[in-house]
Amino acid sequence: MKELALHLLDIAENSVAANAQNITISVLFNTEQDLLQLSIEDDGKGMDAERLQRITDPFVTSRTTRKVGLGIPLFKAAAESCNGSFDIQSALGQGTKVTAIFQESHIDRMPLGDLKSTLISLLIGYPDVHWVLKYGFNGNIFEFDDAPIKKELEGIALTEPGVLGFLNEYIASGITNTRSS
Amino acid sequence: MSKVKSLADLKRVREEALKKQEAKNTANKIQIVIGMGTVGIVAGARETLKAILDFIEKENLQDIAVRQTSNIGMDSWEPIVQVVVGDEPSVSYGKVSAEVAKKIMKEHVVDGNIVKEYVIETQ
User: Fold this and answer.
1) A61 CB within 8 Å of a chain B CB
2) CB contact under 8 A, A6 and B41
3) What is the pTM of this model?
4) What pLDDT score does A50 carry?
5) Closest Cα in chain A, distance from residue B63 (Å)
6) Given Cys at both, which of A12, A65, B14, B77 links B73, Cβ 3.0 to 4.6 Å?
7) A19-57 burial by CB neighbour count: b if 16+ within 10 A, else e?
8) Which domain holds residue A54?
9) C-alpha span between A181 and A148 (Å, rounded)
């Protein structure tokens, strides 16, 4: 993958597959400490200790169409090749939190990429999930929560052209303002 | 329609959408499903979806349901997009780049003609 935002999309898909109702994606830049921390936290079905131990092995997957799963091993390798670290916390019935930390300035660190498209893909693709994005830059935080938007829309789909325009502009300006303030 | 900038403006979008839905025959409802597993994502499925959403926004198309699915199980055809128009059989397209997605939106979704060269399966 060419962007960290694509990894976030991929890992969030796992959360959806684990029947999560609430999924929070965090992207936290700390340039003073030269760190970029990405995490995906869900309240899905979780994993037991034995499965958790094997989850970063590419030959472990819950899919039935093919016997290898590469999403988590790829994300882990991306972090570890940038002087970073990777961690998964999970408990059966309680959910999973995947965290990857990167040295922000590392020459091999992939660009974050198109975070807005990743978020909109998830919002549109899985409207029944409650999505939250926390985007932080040196302590400034932009928090996007789709619950008030869906409440306002009262059942009108997020794919209505006017709503798509709103989402694009709202997320883009939230990210830009966080970086520049 | 002027640009929607705040949550309050969404009310207006909602009311306009409701009016249009009432006026429209829902038998022709369109559903688009895109495969967004790891392979699909690496093959560019997010850009494909973005092209579809941009088209909907730009052409102001109402009442189109867009969904994602994970593993379709046909890796070499990714990105895969499925289009269902009303009661018609669903049509699956393979190797749908952003450019191909625009073509499918224009020719199939808007004009009702299947884009045969990218069809992988019709059920």
Assistant:
1) no
2) yes
3) 0.89
4) 84
5) 7
6) A65
7) ebeebbbbbbbeeeeeebbbbbbbbbbbbeeeebeebee
8) 4-180
9) 25
